[in-house]
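User: Some background: our group keeps a shared notebook of sequences we're curious about, and every so often someone picks one and asks for a predicted structure to add to the entry. Today it's my turn. The entry only has the sequence so far, pasted here. Could you supply the structure so I can complete it?
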Amino acid sequence: MNLPPNTCNGQAKLASAAVLSRDEPSGRAVLLLALAGSVWGTADMAYAQSVSDVTCHIEYATTRDGVRLATEVYLPVVPGRYPVVMQRTPYNRNGAPEDVSCVNATLQTYARNGYAALNQDVRGLYRSEGIFDAMRQEANDGYDAIEWAARQPWSSGKVGTFSGSYVGLTQWQPAIRTPPSLAAISPNITASDYHDHWTYVNGAFALWFAQSWIPLTLGKETMLRQLLASPMSRADANAQVAAFTERSNRDLTSNWVWQLPLKAFPEFRSIAPYYYEWLDHPNYDAYWQALDVEPRYQNVRVPTLNSGAWYDIFQVGTVRNFQGMKTNGGTAEARQGSKLIMTCCGHAGTSGQVSWGTASSPITTELRFFDRYLKGIRNGVETDPAVQLYVLNPPDTGTQGSGFWVYGDQYPLSGTRNTTYFFTSGGRANSSAGDGKLDLSPPWADSTKEGKRRLLEELRSSIPDQFVYHPNDPVPTVGGNLCCQPLLLAAGAHDQTRVEARNDVLVYTSEPLADDMAVIGPVKVVLWAASSARDTDFTAKLVDVHLDGFAHNVLDRVVRARFREGSKAPPSLIRPFTPYEYTIDLGNAGTVFKKGHRIRVEISSSNFPQFARNLNTGLDDSESVLSISALQVVLHDKHHTSRLELPVATTERIPNP
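Assistant: Of course. Here's the predicted structure to add to the notebook entry:
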């Protein structure tokens, strides 16, 4: 989903800023390009220009089935054979009213640093031939593009790939097929399993992502392409694309996300048929297995620079890719060369209420990484820390936070210890005004109290909590790990006070912390719950309550009851009013809970429109309009220990902001 630059810049971060020059080509550059054309012979080329010390022209790479993929080729002005860096993207035009070519500042910077830098349109979009088939086309096309690039007269034969989101997918898909000329990849803010934590999350359809991403990006481009092929004038086609964009912005939150059944939603029928394929495959079946990176790390034989962000929609996949390559990469160099860099926000951008300062560059920049593995420069990248994390440090009051870097050779960091907080209440944990608590030492584990007193306190703190989930009145999404239109639904860290005022949200809060606590690593909620429904959802949210009462979201996730055994396991309905244990992996935290702050967990059954509502019927929600309310019961006693598990980095020194 590597969004267009004005929305979320997934381009490479080089050591120095790129400056875009629109100078006319020099006579020398034009002559060199003309001479190069005679050398390239039958290469299919079009459009040439230069910007002082860089030339650019367009060639067409032909895939195994004869489809030609348009490729901008940026080169140093001095002819030669250069290592190749390439991004394969669907976003070069992105439905814009005017076409542009050879103006990519990041690629120009790479060429200035001695690379042949390639910017390729994926199949079926902008200047490339064929029909776009989201995700599934990228393995073969990417493999063919890598091998094509390695054979060209301007290439040294070594190819690296870079960029993020969907352009991370276009790297991983060929990488797991082991193209022989691939030497390194640098995927950022991207996923590892395109069923779980891309299209679905623990069985719940990622509604906001799907319905906001497509009209913002791929849908507009496909619509424009179809209209221009109709044929239609560019002005009329632009007008229709603009009208579609206006309609999506107007109706997305007020109409589109509310429509039932999900499959009846009409807007994407012609421009994004893959949306309906996703709905046709709610389970982890052959459709998703063919794309899944996680079982295939052994096929990737090159170093990987994995960059992500704590509030990014794909942070789970970023970490899994690093860990998978570190453990199971196909060569010793691949395992030793796997690195993880985490910063703040990713796709969330700056739409959060809380800001986190400006992170300095990580130790391992992408340019140093490619210099090491594509040019063979002994610059020490292989000895850089494998894990480089920008940890978020929230304010005590106000919304101006900060951050600091920590480093290690493993994730979670060495010295991390698990700290468990148990849910307790007197049966009235509804809303932040209720009596829900997070206890390090619940009454049933308190050995300092004996006899009737201990039993009485145990009974008082173990009364189950209840709420009613109404699918027609879901808990609203307020911030979080979102993509893709923050002006319509803001992402990142936001005050949860409004959410926590609802009676269908259970709230469990700790005592003020006596000392700072650095929570760095995977966070888990173990929930014992029963429902009157045969299928339902449970949501969990980790919250930091500041000294002034501002309560910002740290992490949140959902689990669909039928997928309680895991997203890859066969789904099974639950028995009404029967307690089940739900393990909800909230994702990865890199934050400080400061002295005096309180740790909080919210439990509910919806987070809308981030996730499609569970209609509580046990039927296929994508084909149904029927919904029923569900009585939800959360248990927390010595036999049903609902709890929060936090990874605490005990050896990290927390600097003063």
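Suggested note for the entry: The radius of gyration is 26 Å. The chain has a mean pLDDT of 91.
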